[in-house]
Automatic annotation (TrEMBL):
This is LppX_LprAFG lipoprotein. It comes from Streptomyces triticirhizae. It comes from the Bacteria.
Amino acid sequence: MTARVPAPRTGWRRRAAVVVSGLTLWFGTVGCGSDEPAVETNGVEDLAPEDIEERARTAAADAATVRLSGTVVAEGSSYRLDMRIGPDGGVGEVSAEGTTFELLRVGEQMYVKADAAFWETEGIPEELESDPTQKLDGKYVLVAPDDPAYAELSGFTEKNALLEALLVLEGERTTGDRSEVDGVATIQLNAAEGAGGTMDVSLEGTPYPLRLHRGGDAGDLRLTDWDQDFSLHAPPEEEIVDYGDAMLPDESD
């Protein structure tokens, strides 16, 4: 049987909400220029900047899976994420304010996993027995779909919604230099001469966006493993802690 325990305080959920809101701010990409042209390209470098962006956005939307990793700076705080996302959910880590937690969504089931130090920071209910953090240390906490935390956290695991937010540049588009990301030749797409963000688009094969740099040096993100399969499995029953709907905030608070 999956363990059911009293609800924790909602501090960790508020922190997750801050991370989500920071993440859904806009990103872009940057890279050092290269004077060496690719021997063979997909031809997008010859398109108008707006068409390059359209090709990249279409390729991203059509891909079944992607891995997003990097940093986001928002409102003076820095966040790091490393998530693999697909049609059935996602898995990975999010770090913020000195803490790290793992997210796993398999279909409609959402789990949060963290160590005892994380739960000590966020607060543990007095109803739990002595040394209660050990009950949650390394466990997968099941988040109920009707808990507000579910909508906040699922933003990290929904590919199309997340990419729609990420793949936005602000300002007039211009074609930049050729560059390279992890050995793949790219063409840079600048917005407002780079002040509104820069996107590296692959010149090899499908024109996926491979790197994003947010305007104002407010974060960098890499997008890799496009359309590559990965496995998603629910945790073993003995590793799950289920709060049911008790995680919902108290209306009297």
